[in-house]
Write a structure and sequence with these properties.
Layout: H1 2-33, E1 49-55, H2 62-70, E2 79-86, H3 92-98, E3 102-106, H4 114-126, E4 134-137, E5 142-144, H5 148-157, E6 162-169, H6 176-199, E7 210-213, H7 214-219, H8 229-239, E8 244-254, H9 261-288, H10 293-304, H11 308-327, H12 332-357, H13 359-362, H14 372-386
Parallel strand pairs: 1-2, 1-4, 2-3, 6-8
Antiparallel strand pairs: 4-7, 5-8, 6-7
Length: 407
């Protein structure tokens, strides 16, 4: 009975991990084939942008963000900086005005999230006599590459309506935690999006460094208000047959929390539970869609892809069961199945190891970051504890203790 029981466990384990391993292989394999990040010829900039900066009590960082945006290498008359001071109780609006940004103040007792703030700003732009050609969304704790708008303009001129820049970390040298965040972003915001884009699946949106053409927004108005509004809107676009393009040649740099463990936990909890909400919202819709079976399978795997720590644990459990299964004595047929299961388990673990190293090849992560793989098990254990906590009912601003106040 033991071989049969282990066989059943192995079949279950392989069924749980194989779809994600296959998608992970396709992601890193296609991403590494697109190592060339040629910018292409730059014509005369023609796109008129409005840069939207949603901000809630961000007086400590908004000045740096506005200064970075004002320094963009793009004709100044062709872009406007609009800060959305959303339910602010500090000096965010005044600081932003003093730095030369236009400010739109918004107050609402119940609709308190970045999604609602963006909806309000887009509705305000719609009422203007002349609308922009495109909007760019930048978080209020972010600096950007100087050629960000040039890269977006080039893509928009080629007919791409939905764009996502490479969102990485501005303060990666502060601690091992921020270095871990940079490595994680290289996987989640870099390698994964590059693979999605190359496969033609459409990249996911990451909330910061996004650009939408105005024509695109007329077809698909903003409709995302949950705990992970960027991913939510990505799936709305996919359901409508739209495609988001990844723009890896330009970066936006967000400030990550360093010395506030409670805030770090709150932020991670919101991200993880936001993704759980999306699985409930879009999972059945994907399976019932009229897409080809292969696309449905790929999108379903993408939507349900577990965090790296959780996936690593599943792979190790599957390998452990495969080793036990392989060591049991049974019939010739069962022995053949044992070899196949062990080979699949080892192959999946090897594939995962290669995926983990790909940011060092594709996203220019320093080799010194290899040391983080020794810390990763402890970080994964901390994250696992978050999965047991209750999901936040609404969006809550992430507190940052290391801020210095208005600049």
């Amino acid at each position: 009975m033991l071989p049969i029981a282990l066989l059943a466990l192995q079949i279950i384990g392989q069924a749980i991990t194989l779809p994600f391993s296959w998608l992970m292989f396709r992601i890193w394999d296609t991403a590494v084939r697109r190592l060339d990040k040629a910018k292409g010829a730059q014509g005369e900039p023609i796109t008129n942008f409005v840069i939207l900066v949603p901000a809630h009590n961000e007086e400590g960082s908004i000045a740096t963000t506005v200064r970075s945006l004002r320094a963009l290498d793009y004709p100044r008359q062709q872009f406007e900086i609009l800060v959305i001071a959303d339910n602010c109780q500090d000096q965010t609006a005044n600081v932003a005005r003093n730095e030369g940004a236009e400010v739109l103040e918004r107050f609402h007792d119940t609709k308190k999230s970045k999604g609602f703030a963006l909806e309000y700003a887009l509705e305000t732009l719609q009422k203007r006599e002349h609308q922009p050609d495109a909007v760019v969304i930048i978080d209020a704790d972010t600096t950007v590459d100087a050629d960000l708008l040039k890269a977006f303009d080039r893509r928009l001129q080629s007919g791409q309506d939905w764009l996502q820049a490479y969102y990485t970390v501005s303060n990666s040298n502060d601690s091992w935690r921020t270095q871990m965040m940079r490595l994680g972003f290289a996987h989640f915001n870099g390698l994964w999006l590059l693979g999605q884009d190359t496969l033609g699946l459409g990249s996911a949106l990451r909330g910061n460094g996004m650009a939408f053409s105005w024509n695109g927004l007329q077809r698909c108005p903003w409709q995302a208000y949950g705990l992970a509004e960027d991913l939510e809107f990505s799936w709305h676009l996919r359901m409508r047959g739209e495609r988001v393009f990844f723009v890896p040649e330009v970066k936006v740099y967000g400030e990550m929390i360093d010395n506030n463990p409670a805030a770090v936990a709150s932020q991670r909890l919101r991200w993880e539970h936001g993704r759980k909400q999306l699985r409930k919202t879009f999972g059945r819709t994907i399976l019932r869609s009229r897409w080809p079976l292969g696309r449905r399978f790929t999108y379903w795997s993408d939507l349900n892809m577990p965090p790296l720590a959780g996936f690593a644990l599943r792979l190790l459990l599957t390998l452990g069961i495969a080793i036990l299964f392989y060591q049991t004595e049974s019939t010739e047929l069962i022995e053949g199945i044992q070899g196949i299961c062990l080979g699949l388990a080892i192959g999946q673990l090897l594939n995962f190891a290669i995926y983990l190293t790909m940011p060092f090849v594709v996203m220019d992560i320093p080799r010194s970051y290899f040391k983080l793989f020794f810390i990763a098990p402890f970080y994964a254990a901390w994250k696992a504890g978050l999965w047991l906590k209750r999901a936040p009912a609404t969006w809550v601003r992430t507190e940052r203790k290391n801020r210095q106040g208005p600049l």
